[in-house]
Amino acid sequence: MAPAPFLLTGTTGGLGAKVLHDLLHTHHISPQAIIATSRSASNRSKFESQGVRFRVADYDHLGTLEEAFKNVENLLFMSSSERDNDKRNKEHANVIEAAKRAKVGRVWYVSLAFGGFGDGSKIGFQQAHYETEDSLLRSGLSFISLRAGVYADAFPLFLNWYPSSKEVLFPNINPPVTESKIAFASRDELGEAIATLLAQGLKVFPSIKPRTEKNIILLTGPKAVSLVDLVGAIVRGRGTDVGAKYLEPQEWIDASTKDDEGGKPKGWFEARLVFTQGVCDGDAELVDPAMEILLGRRPESGTESVERLVRENRDYTWHQNHMQAR
Ligand SMILES: NC(=O)c1ccc[n+]([C@@H]2O[C@H](COP(=O)([O-])OP(=O)(O)OC[C@H]3O[C@@H](n4cnc5c(N)ncnc54)[C@H](OP(=O)(O)O)[C@@H]3O)[C@@H](O)[C@H]2O)c1
């Protein structure tokens, strides 16, 4: 039997669902050429009802991955949503081991853009992405690392903003948060760009050259904006006033943890301080043209996305801002 052209992980999530949608409806790939996956077999009918094939793939269970990855040409490997880096590294090691054993043709790993084309970011969750890329390199598999820009859609998480918020708290650090620079990307546009790349292949885009030994393609918005700029975008989009308040780092951690609507613990805000320092140091500022080339138009900037999102829905929330919703 000929290998399945595409196996997609993460298809029940926001990014993977958009990739699947565009492969089917923009690029008119035959549903039978695509295998969707989930940890839960209960999602089977959702995909099979569209004619798409389905397999269970759970990063925690190597056996499911070995079965799922049999006879597959292109594996879209969505990074796990696990927040604990040790657990995430084990899950990702399972995916790579299974891809090796199943002799997958090429792995397209959806990584994250902190550090640009380098490995210098100290931000906690980026470390698992660096480690996964290193493991892919050692594996001998053919792979591309798609370093995805920071989601503009996840802005409530980065600002700890809720529709009820009257002000956004920022830590007083150096360089100051007014100088933070993030080349945010819209999740839908990332999905669109990834689907185009999978459907058409790299050869169609000779100006997009995977960089470094890790074969990195950086997918970013068209310019870097600051976290404080996003507060301005909320104000414009909702037509209400939201202030910005600056506190010393420990004070900021304590005040953010106290009565947090999402119930996030102190450790979460301690990690958020490292994130904020990273984006003030320029970890996410690099802009690359690859996304614009793949979309065939200028992508949305972070402030444009945020303004649109809160204009469309004043009560916009982001699931990862709430501990119980993860
Ligand atoms: N670029 C950014 O700023 C940014 C922001 C947030 C997240 N991310 C990363 O990008 C990934 C995709 O984003 P998203 O917005 O689509 O996330 P999402 O909506 O939360 O969906 C996560 C997807 O990953 C799958 N998944 C999670 N853990 C898995 C595991 N252990 N084994 C197999 N599948 C697993 C889930 O499948 P099932 O539940 O059906 O098994 C689900 O389809 C996230 O998982 C996260 O690593 C990036």
Automatic annotation (TrEMBL):
Tell me which residues make up the NAD(P)-binding domain.
10-153
Q: Which domain of life is it from?
A: Eukaryota
Cross-referenced Pfam families, in alphabetical order? NAD_binding_10 (PF13460)
InterPro entries of this UniProt entry? NAD(P)-bd_dom (IPR016040), NAD(P)-bd_dom_sf (IPR036291), NmrA-type_oxidoreductase (IPR052718)
Residue ranges of coiled coil:
none
**The protein's name:** NAD(P)-binding domain-containing protein
